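BACKBONE GEOMETRY TOKENS:
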Amino acid sequence: MSCNWGTELWDQFDNIEKHTSWGIDFLERYTKFVKERAEIELSYAKQIRSLSKKYHPKRSREDESRSESYTWCVAFAATLRQLSDVANQREELAENLNTQIVCELARYTQELKSERKSHFQDGRRAQQHIESSWKQLESSKRRFERDCKEAERARHVSDRIDLENKTDGEKARQTAQQKQQAAEESRKDYVTSLSQFNQDQHQHYHTLVPVIYQRIQDMEERRIERICEAMRSSTEAERKVLPVVGRCLDAMMDAAESIQPRKDTRQVVEVFKSGFDPPGDIEFEDYSTSMRRSISESSYLDNRTENRRHSRKLWPFIRKNKGSSPADCSHLPPEQRRKKLQTRINNINQEIQREKEQRNALLKMREVYEQSPQMGDPSSVEPRLEEVKHSLQRLEEELRRHQVWLSEVDSRMSDPGPRQSGGCGPDGSYTEDQNAELHFKSRSSEFDEEFDEEEPLPSIGTCKSLYQFQGQNEGTLSMVEGELLSVVEEDKGDGWTRVRRNMEEEGYVPTSYIKVFLDSSAKGAMTYI
């Protein structure tokens, strides 16, 4: 159904002005709405990206190895990556809303205000013109009315004087004729003004007003259409990112479905399995016989002390230092040693393959130089070939050595004979073999004499490591960043604090590497770094 404001709303100029003003206000409010929504999308994207970065695994070697070993860690890392991609899509949506809608609507609003102002100025000029024509008509009408009344009075006076006095009657008749002529001229002016006003009025309501109001109507329809386009563009901008977001959500779902609890529990076995058999029954030792009673008390105490040394193993002075682990990995349990050696063998094989590929490439290059001397000197390749040859010899020798160690571990693990004195203790924890123990005891006999007969010192507080420390000297204790340890002795002014780990390892660490929390009951209780 078609309509025309010029014909339907010819007398609603003020209401049309108010309505178009309200429409522009609505357009500005919608523009502000889209702008604020874009800001919310951008803020959401930044927060999601920050959250993903916050919970992303640390890039340390231990965490990276752990994250790659378990399916739930891999799935969570994949979820965080997909979440970062979702944040990118929300940022893209915010950018599209700003560039395609907010900026365009702001520019269009200014143009719309200028166009509206021009149309209503034309309307006011037309209104002023018709009002001026109406005032002129009213003026000529009042003048014609006044002149007619004056001519009528002059005629009555002339008729009355003509009956009484003929001399005065002639003068009165002349006056009446003049008034009649003036009335006739006023009548002509009134007719002319009336005709002009009717013409102006017809032109105003049938030509000027319809044209002006039609322009205003077209402007209003364009404004509404622009709002419609902005809403469609906003929806399309969001729909554009939905497929990517959907793929991210599908990837998150796939990551969740890829978690395998049974595989992760098997991986725990692969990582921590020692390969030792559980300890057997302890034989009964009869001390009630006369021969047992003849044993001196000192020997009995020595035996108790020796047993306590093997079971407790508090001091790091008689333990192998992590920084000087043997090349054959003999300090590890059999299963872990086998895995470590197998990993090294695989790495050596890869290096050998790379060296062989490089050797083949050098040989081809030397052959080309020999066939085409202008391309290069064949002797220039010889030094590099010699280096590759020595490197291959070194790698092959290292490979043979590791294979021997691996075969030794496999033979021991497949040997069903009695267990060695080392292995698992009664509590199931790993202990070193007797030869290694005696070897380290001989290196640190003075520490054995000083500490082995002592009871462990009580803990006077706790500490948290601020940095990683690799203990290379006897008496020191290695630690990783963030590890919690017990404090057994404060710093005596030499920059070292004595700490303990799990009632099995004890030693000194740099005081500046830890943050100490002493118990309130300890002497001089304080917290220091």
Observations:
- The longest strand covers residues 484-489.
- The chain has three domains: 5-264, 334-412, 461-518.
- The first helix runs from residue 5 to 8.
- Strands lie at 423-424, 430-431, 461-465, 484-489, 496-501, 505-510, 514-518, 527-528.
